[in-house]
Design goal:
Elements: H1 3-11, H2 17-22, H3 26-41, H4 50-56, H5 63-87, H6 96-110, H7 118-140, H8 145-165, H9 195-216, H10 219-229, H11 231-236, H12 241-267, H13 277-290, H14 295-311, H15 319-333, H16 342-355
Helix pairs in contact: 5-9, 5-12, 5-13, 5-14, 6-7, 6-8, 6-12, 7-12, 9-12, 10-12, 13-14, 14-15
Length: 356
Amino acid sequence: MSLTDIFRARTRPLTSVSSRFSALPKQVRWSLMGLFVVALYFAPRWPDVPVLGWIINTPGTNFSSVLTDQIMIFVLMALGLNVVVGLAGLLDLGYVGFYAIGAYTTAIITSQHANLPWLLAIPIAVLVSMSAGVILGTPTLRLRGDYLAIVTLGFGEIIRITANNSEWLGAAAGIKKIKHPPTIGPLKFGVLDEHPYWYLGFTAILFVIFLLRRLESSRVGRAWSAVREDEDAAELMGVDTFKFKLWAFAIGAGIGGLAGVLYAGKVGFINPDNFQLQLSILFLAAVVLGGTGNMYGAIVGGFLVAWMPERFRNFQDKRFFVFGVALVLVMVFRPQGIIPRRSAAAGIAKKGDSHV
């Protein structure tokens, strides 16, 4: 038995957590989920817990800032990209473009350009991002594999370069004086307190999870699975593959746009340098690391890709090397991701049993 097989055998219980949880009585499941959600709402307070605080500590950086500036955004982006890559099986290397569209739409609407309320930016930015997804997908989704990846890669760069060369978008200087979310009861969104942004962002994440869960169990989700496994066979069985791929692009783009709205409303200033190509690569890494096609795996992957570089700040300039080594080790020993989708998990379990 090889080292890889031993590691997979030791970590095999991770693939059965979902089935064990599903076997619990309904009341127990709902109670556990409720407690977990409440605990996540208090995530900014986690560093105050003795042992947990030492584990999640981010040296040199406030953990609340990491939550709102990186983890919240990466989790949302991983959820959206998982729709495109994990559920529909489409390789998108320019996903940061939709993130930029959402952020710039918010900046234009709420800054001196239009000076409209921030809440109005949410539906408008999401619709604009979804429209961009449809516009990009209509001529390109007939391509497959590497060709589609190259086209989407170009799209992400086109958005950034366009913003960099357009005076009405602030050019290289960007757009400032973007409005923050309005006060909601005791929650006051300013520049000093990070907590309200986490409460708002986590609520948005829960809404996206609820929406995607409904879609996964619907006819749309089944069509995505068929396209991902074998597009030609799905088309022969009567699935309108182009339509459902376009749906995946549009929904993924809308979630990316929502992340852009939250980011712009939090920082109050954006410029083209906030939307580099490397972000698209990191978003894809989050999906692959967590488990392609598994929504909860994407959440875990988004958290780790955003948190690990901050956790390794003690390594100074070498922290990205350590981060890269950690990613490589996970991919070697868990090629299907930390939490693979059920079909992949079943394959891993059978393979492991055959080696034992």
